[in-house]
Every structure is written in C-alpha cells, then in structure tokens.
Amino acid sequence: MKDFDNDQRNYIRGIDFGAILDLDGGVVPWSFVQWLANHVDVDNEDMSFQQKSIEINIESFGHVLGVPTTGRPIPAESKVTTIEFLGLFGLTEMPSIKFFGDKIIAKGQNKDEFLRCFMIVALATFYCPTSSTNPSTTYLGGIINVEDIKSYNWGKFFQEWTLWYINKYQERSSTLALCNYYNAVRYLDF
C-alpha cells in the first residue's frame, strides 16, 4: 500500500476504507489470538475476563477498523454473484488472492478494477482471512458495484464473520479466520 499513488489512496478513502492506509503492519502473536478467541462468549457477543466483558459489536468494528457501520447488508453469497464478479475480470473460476494482488502492482487498471482488486486483497488477507489461497465468495456481492461499497454495513459483516469463525474454532478447534488486529486492539484498548 505504500506504493499506491494519491489517486489510488483517494479511491480507497472514497469507499470509506481509508483507515487501512494508516496501519504500519505488524504481527499479532498466534498464542495471543488463540487466548483471545478462547475468551469469547459467542452467544453474548463479548470477550469475558474475570468479571469484565468487552463487547464485540458493530460499532467497535467501525471504531477499530474505520469501516462503515450503517447501511444495507452485504448481498448474500450466490452462484450468480460469483459468476457476475468473475465476468468483470473475464474469468470463469476464482483465481488466487495473488492474482488480484498482481493486478494492483501492475497498475494501469481503471478505478473500479483497482478498487475491486484492492477489496479482494484487503478482505482476504486482513479483514476476513481464511486458510485458503483463494478469496471467499461470501463478500463478492458487496464489491461488484464499486459505487455501492460504502453503502453496506461492513461492521456488521465483520462482526458476524468474526463470531462465526470463533464459534467454529471453539467447537471444532478449526482454523481461526478473523481479523486478528481487531481482536487485539479491542482487548488492549479496553
């Protein structure tokens, strides 16, 4: 992101995802991520520590990640949405996250293509990561029409994603696929 020009940075700010541009990077230790996840009460939507709790609410995602917390829900995942999204790139199957990252690095794309590629990489690696090398199709409906990105309630989407993956982790000890930055900041800010 350091190599983004002013236009690209303004495009990202224009869809209300500009806060990510201010992050310096860093790693949240895996043992800390697991410890935090083990202290989440999914039903109560909070982290509980010795008689104290930290809410995992929509507004906190907006505060920590600087994303929209009002508006429409992200359109539901569907085969039609995936086909429509892939069609924008002339593809028939979902490529790796690297494909979209390479398109950003290559430059020369128009605003809409840049923002779609940026959102795929940001969602797949930071906001909603998974263990797959391919992006999830869950959020594609929210980035097909670039002009609509900021009209969606991303805070709610990230909250639901986080709680779903923490619940899955707690029940089956599966991979934790969530924004580690959010959980760490929320805990440390408390």
Strand portion: 5-15%
Largest sheet, in brief, is: 3 strands, antiparallel
Tally the beta strands. Answer: 3
Instruction: Kindly give the count of domains.
Output: 1
Radius of gyration (Å) = 17 Å
Helical coverage, percent range: 40-55%
- Whole-Å distance between the termini? 29 Å
Q: How many helical stretches? A: 8
Strand order of the largest sheet: 1-2-3
The SSE order reads HHEEEHHHHHH
The mean pLDDT is: 92
Show unreliable segments: none
Shape: globular
Content-based structural category: mainly alpha
Keywords:
190 residues, mainly alpha, three-stranded antiparallel beta sheet
Question: How would you describe this protein?
Answer:
With 190 residues, the chain is mostly helical. The chain has one domain (6-189). The chain has helices at residues 6-14, 30-38, 58-65, 79-88, 97-106, 111-127, 154-172, 180-189, and strands spanning 40-41, 46-49, 52-55. It has a 3-stranded antiparallel β-sheet. The protein is globular, with a radius of gyration of 17 Å. The mean pLDDT is 92.
Short description:
The chain has helices at 6-14, 30-38, 58-65, 79-88, 97-106, 111-127, 154-172, 180-189; strands at 40-41, 46-49, 52-55. With 190 residues, it is mainly α.
